[in-house]
């Protein structure tokens, strides 16, 4: 059996409960993909986006309705080794990828304040523009369950705000475009297990800034370590954080924002 077929089989069989079922559940529960959608699946070169691409590929084959997908890699300035690894993995996984170049890494490399934030914004803008060029109506990203939990705690601890990474979003600047995250319910440990089981090797962030920086100083890694420590005492801690976002009691919060309008518990306190 060819390597890519073994990999596909592992998603449907061995990792049916931990990856495939959760992927399908997110697609269905959050209405992420609909009939005749034209998706641009964004592949960064990492484990998450490559798994996402394979799951989308399998859904096209086994799903209940037709839709299209284009598998796109934006090269923001990868070194030669990483670029070649992405192309090699695409062949191993039997993915027909399209690569387009940008100079994002060069631009960000000269920025000292919030380079990662700027990089993310520039990447997003380039991907939205490419999706419009290809006639796609949805951009597909590989964020997973752990990303959701970490983003939630980062917002609380460093942003003084309770908000999370949503399973789908409308674009503010590109009319008719949506961003979706079908791996929303898939845990990173399951993705890592899938990678090891299939003896695959993917790139990490690979940007020029993080190659030079002290990664241990990042706030996201700090949150990741905290969650791991908490899970040693309560293995369901991440799931409980996730469910709390779907179970907010507005009678017991000091205030909230809706459509950029700020509300306080005092607004209708006397009525009660």
Write the topology of this structure.
Elements: H1 3-12, H2 16-29, E1 38-42, H3 47-62, E2 68-75, H4 80-92, E3 97-101, H5 104-108, H6 115-134, E4 138-140, H7 145-159, E5 168-170, E6 178-180, H8 188-197, H9 208-212, H10 219-231, H11 237-244, E7 255-258, E8 261-264
Parallel strand pairs: 1-2, 1-4, 2-3, 4-6
Antiparallel strand pairs: 5-6, 7-8
Helix pairs in contact: 7-10, 7-11
What does this protein structure show overall?
The structure is a single chain. The protein has helices at 3-12, 16-29, 47-62, 80-92, 104-108, 115-134, 145-159, 188-197, 208-212, 219-231, 237-244; strands at residues 38-42, 68-75, 97-101, 138-140, 168-170, 178-180, 255-258, 261-264. The protein has 272 residues and is α/β, with parallel strands linked by helices. The protein has one domain: HUPs (Rossmann fold), CATH 3.40.50. The strands form two sheets. The chain has a six-stranded mixed sheet with strand order 3-2-1-4-6-5, with helices on both faces. A two-stranded antiparallel sheet has the order 7-8. α4 links the parallel β2 (68-75) and β3. The chain is globular and about 70 Å long. The relative contact order is 0.15.
């Amino acid at each position: 059996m060819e390597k890519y077929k073994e990999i596909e089989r592992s998603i449907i069989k061995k990792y049916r409960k931990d990856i495939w079922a959760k992927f399908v559940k997110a697609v269905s529960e959050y209405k992420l993909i609909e009939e005749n959608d034209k998706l641009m699946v964004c592949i960064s070169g990492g484990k998450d986006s490559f798994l996402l691409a394979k799951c989308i590929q399998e859904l096209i084959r086994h799903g209940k309705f037709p839709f299209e997908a284009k598998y796109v890699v934006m090269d923001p300035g990868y070194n030669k080794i990483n670029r070649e690894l992405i192309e090699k993995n695409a062949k191993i996984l039997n993915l027909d990828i399209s690569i387009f170049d940008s100079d994002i890494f060069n631009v960000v490399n000269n920025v000292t304040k919030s380079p990662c934030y700027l990089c993310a914004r520039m990447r997003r803008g380039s991907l939205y523009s490419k999706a419009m060029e290809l006639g796609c109506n949805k951009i597909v990203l590989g964020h997973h369950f752990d990303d959701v939990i970490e983003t939630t705690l980062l917002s609380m601890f460093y942003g003084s705000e309770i908000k999370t990474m949503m399973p789908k979003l409308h674009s503010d600047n590109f009319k008719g475009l949506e961003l979706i995250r079908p791996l929303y319910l898939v845990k990173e440990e399951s993705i890592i297990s899938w990678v090891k089981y299939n003896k695959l090797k993917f790139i990490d962030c690979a940007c020029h800034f993080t190659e030079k920086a002290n990664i241990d100083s990042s706030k996201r890694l700090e949150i990741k370590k905290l969650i791991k420590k908490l899970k040693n005492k309560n293995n369901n801690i991440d799931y409980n954080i996730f469910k709390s976002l779907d179970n907010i009691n507005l009678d017991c919060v000091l205030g909230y924002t809706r459509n950029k309008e700020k509300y306080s518990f005092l607004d209708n306190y006397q009525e009660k």
